[in-house]
Amino acid sequence: MKNLLKYSLVALSLTVAANAAEKIVVGATPVPHAEILEVAKPILAKDGFTLEIKEFNDYSTPNLATEDGDLDANYFQHLPYLEEFNKNKGTHLVKTAGIHLEPMGVYSKKIKDIKELKDGSTVAIPNDPTNESRALDVLATAGLIKLNDNPLKTPLDITENPKKLKFEEIESAQVPRTLDDVTIAVINTNYALNANLNPTKDALVLESKDSPYTNYIVVKAGNENSPKIKALDKAVTSPEVKKFIEEKYKGAIIPSF
User: Fold this and answer.
1) Which domain holds residue 62?
2) Within this chain, do residues 141 and 193 fall inside the same structural domain, yes or no?
């Protein structure tokens, strides 16, 4: 009877402790963001927080869900995208901790070297303003095109196109699926990894490591100093997370802290 009472009290204590843990709900794209957040889970648990990760495969829904309060935070985007989203959607989202950089890359199933690119080739690029501009910058750095000085560029901002490249503007998550149809595609690293592409091995051209496109934790303005967000920021910039990023992605994803 004493043992039964003892075990019942232990079970009750565990239940109370579990219920006492404050939940943090974070929206993220699957790779690498959700994978990185998984490493932060046990760190947050030690501080009394339960991390719930909700996965999304687009860049709009998690921002709207954060604005509406359905998510405490999200983790998938860089600052230029966030600023453009706030401007276009009237949202009030702010960045907190900077976690990692995903160098954008040029991929192909048709050629093995960017020097093999023929005149009139078709190029797939993301269609959202910031990632489209970023993709064009990658192509310009590779010497394929020249651009004007507009801050957000589209194919209309190409001033020189010696190879007469043709551009297809595709939703970011769908760009990897175009590889069977186009000659080259400029793909965000998270979607490249999701398509089993290794940026350091498979990319014909890879964005410079001094790129400004760090991926941040993002919250609704006013929540950035809440205890749960402070705990989240601390966990995702921990030595454990940094080691995981370096060992797991081997240079395809670069810690920003």
Assistant:
1) 22-102+213-255
2) yes
φ, ψ of residue 46 to 5 degrees: the values are -65, -25
CATH, residue 48: 3.40.190.10
| Number of other residues whose CB lies within 10 A of the CB of residue 4 | 8
| Pair type for strands 184-187 and 254-255 | unpaired
Separation between Cα atoms, residue 216 and residue 178, nearest integer Å: 28
Determine, yes or no, domain membership for 14: no
Could you state, in chain order, the average pLDDT of each consecutive group of 10 residues for the chain (257 residues)? 49 47 96 97 98 96 98 96 96 97 95 97 96 96 97 96 98 97 96 92 89 93 98 98 95 90
Nearest CA among 205, 224, 206 for reference residue 216: 224
Distance CA 75, CA 187 (A): 18
Same domain, 59 and 92: yes
Number of domains in the chain: 2
Chain-centroid distance, C-alpha 77: 5
The answer to whether the pTM exceeds 0.70 is yes
Neighbouring C-beta atoms of residue 149, cutoff 10 Å: 7
Q: Which residues of 157-190 are buried (b: 16+ CB within 10 A; e: fewer)?
A: bbeebeeebebeebebbebbebbeebbbbbbbbb
